[in-house]
Amino acid sequence: MNRKVALVCTFAVLVGLLTGCAYKDIDKRFFVTSIGVDYSKNPQKPYHVSLKLAIPSPQVQPGKTNFQVISENADSIAEAVRVMKSKVDKDFDFGHCRVLVFNKAILRKHQAEVLNWFMRRRDIQGIAYMALGEPTAEKVIRVKAKSERLPSNAIILSFDETSNDSPYIIPEILNDFYMRLREEGIDPYLPVIQPLKDTYVINKVVLFKGSRLSKELNRDETRILNELLNTGRRGQINVKQGENEFFVNVESFNTKTKVVIPRNKKPYVNVHIKIDGYIESSDKKIYHNYELLEDQRLASEVISKRVKSTLETIQKTGSDPLGLGLRYQAKHGVSEKNVKKWNKIYPHIHFKVKTDLKLRGTGIMY
Amino acid sequence: MANQQKIVSTLKEQLGNSNDFKIQDIDSFRKKIVLVYIESLIDYKKINKDLIDPLLLCEKEDKYLLHLLSLPPCRQLKTEDNLLSLLIKGNLLIITTDFIFSYDAKKATNNQPGDSAVEMAVLGPQKALSENLSTNINLVRNRYPSEHLIMEQQTVGTMSKTPIALMYDKKLVDHDVLSDVKKRLPEIKMDMIQAIGQLENAMTKKKHHLFPIMMITERPDRIALNLSQGKVIILMHGTPFALIVPAVFFDFMSSMDDTSHTFWTNMLMIGIRYIGLLITLVLPALYIALTSYNPEILRSQLAATIAGSRAGVPYPSFFEVAFMMLAVEMLVESSIRLPKAIGPTATTVGGLILGQAAQQAQLVSSIMIIITAFVAISNFTIPVNPMSFAIRVARYPLILLASFFGMMGVVAGLILLICYLTDKRSFGTPFLRLYRGSSRRIEKITENPKGEKG
């Protein structure tokens, strides 16, 4: 018994003398908060990868965000990251990388390879937001937003529906993008971020046709696409008809899209929009209920017309962000024949838009 | 006459050196009566009232002897009785020419029930047990006035010969448990048993065990409640605590206040206790796992703050946790035994100054201070003391596992802990057996008594 105790004590002392490996603690990691991938114009090393590294501080204050951006040209993203490791003092940790920004050129030329790395990495989260940076991804990454408490947090907050429900922002996450890319009958899109001096603007979206970059939608078209995607982001709708102009503040916005293929008739898409809201501002004075109903009818027509024209614009590009092809497949089965058939139908399909607008009132007025 | 002299002289020989050994000769009825006793054990008032006063009043010897025999604590001794052990137990020997009587005149010490100090209740009864066995039995009998309540007296300890009392309700008691307890008690080979915890350890078969399988309580109301739940109670002379057998894990999480709160208050209190249990067990391990292995689980904001506050700390998170846990354990341990006058000073110096200074000196991160305080406070939410101590110990294996394997180690450690608890038995009762709330249980007992099923 005594010998045992002596032995244990000896070992305890000896263990204390041993050397060992240190931990890779949280403070020995560099948190990459966003990654930007640009085209470098050098065909040998086409990837210009920029990493935004957070410099943590114990006190978090607005506008006191601290970060460092490093960039590298390489022939692959993995290679670029490997080379960049020698430029910093700590190891990269991609566990908190929530923003991935690309520029147009790299997506045109090396789309498949770019996504490959992000999909394979275990530590890149599937909920990372993807965006297109204009003019370059690096410029977007370098933006230091005034309100920002943590690096890249401002972009994350803008994409997050709980903190920003602007109808011009359509967020896209990595998993969803990948699904849309691989799935037949639905096409991906990416929001466009343009850097400003102390902030940035996100109000456009760029469409893809298949896996190729397609047309960019303008601001209003972006909003209508957002509404059709049922993202829950609400805003105001302005209605202008001749002299009369008013705004409708949307309380709830609901769309039902249906692909109808009748026998012996031309196929069409039925879009049924239900809006609840009240008038936010109006040039005209509204005294009577029939005037409100008149406005309601007017607004419905205007909205229907706009939605129809947006859908037609999207149709012309050949892109299908609403997944109408997927709806067709759901009814007619998934086969190569059906996919081909749909590809023939889609460019000529007719859109029937019906809007049920309900104006709850004229707002609170005293 | 010669016999009387002989007995007295033998006793004198055996105990002669002790100063408190007294022999008192009284001449009356033309005979000699000798009173032999140990002064320090004897209640003088009782002797005066019961023995001396009647002696002066009685005219005849027969009458006095009759009076002696009519006293409840007095009995006539036979030759085979061990006079010495009777003396030591606090008896007074009355040696007449023909008979020897023993009279139990023990001075009752510490027989006042004190206020409950270990298991406080806000609304429940406020008095705890006393240190006197017969007072305690009295307290229990008063709280549990049932004709089925059985009391069996025994002694434990080869030298201390501490009297203990086994109490149970013969209709409700689990007979397997009872026979197991009765089997284990005589097997105890220990010289001195003075505390109930000692008895508990002696009765537990495994030498190295962590979680208590018997509950120690100082509350007569808990004893009465547990009697009605068919449990066996062991009271010991000289301690204000009782053992309750068997005890399952969820018993240790119940407080006597649970019966006096309203339903939703009760739910909240019990919920808080279990959350506290989880926090005190897991939080330090979780901190290591999250900062050293899996920071991606945290929100980015929190990860950045932790990284920032840890930036100046030169040691890995494991040392940080070990250092702070050591400080807290020392603080708790020292404040238990400190005199009440110094206690607050120690906690102020230890808790406030040490914590603040350690953080400012960048020995530990500020997040770690919060975790330390949280762990220490939540540990106190566990209402029964031995369980709270056991949980304190149980978090160190988790810390070790977390520092070697990260998040996976924590999860594996928790699974192992649950396996261990599931395997554990308290006198044949599975340790993790689910129990319904105590007050409802009583209602159930009257409908469906356990004793009838065997």
UniProtKB/TrEMBL annotation, chain A:
Family assignment from sequence similarity: Belongs to the GerABKC lipoprotein family.
Sequence ranges assigned to domain Spore germination GerAC-like C-terminal in this UniProt record: 204-363
InterPro entries hit by this protein: GerAC_N, Spore_GerAC-like, Spore_GerAC-like_C, Spore_GerAC_C_sf
Compartment(s) where it occurs, according to its Swiss-Prot or TrEMBL record: Membrane
Main location: membrane
Name of the molecule in the record: Ger(X)C family spore germination protein
One Pfam family of this chain: Spore_GerAC
Highest taxon above the source species: Bacteria
Residues of the Spore germination protein N-terminal domain: 23-194
Gene Ontology annotations for the cellular component aspect, listed alphabetically: membrane
UniProtKB/TrEMBL annotation, chain B:
Pfam families associated with the record: GerA
Keyword RNA-binding: no
Membrane disposition: Multi-pass membrane protein
Transmembrane feature ranges: 232-253, 274-293, 363-384, 396-421
GO cellular component: plasma membrane
Cellular compartment(s): Cell membrane; Membrane
GO biological process: spore germination
Keyword Zinc: no
Signal peptide: none
InterPro entries: Spore_Ger (IPR004995), UPF0353/GerABKA_families (IPR050768)
Keywords of the record: Membrane, Transmembrane, Transmembrane helix
Lineage top rank: taxon: Bacteria
UniProt family annotation: Belongs to the GerABKA family.
Name listed for the protein in its UniProt record: Spore germination protein
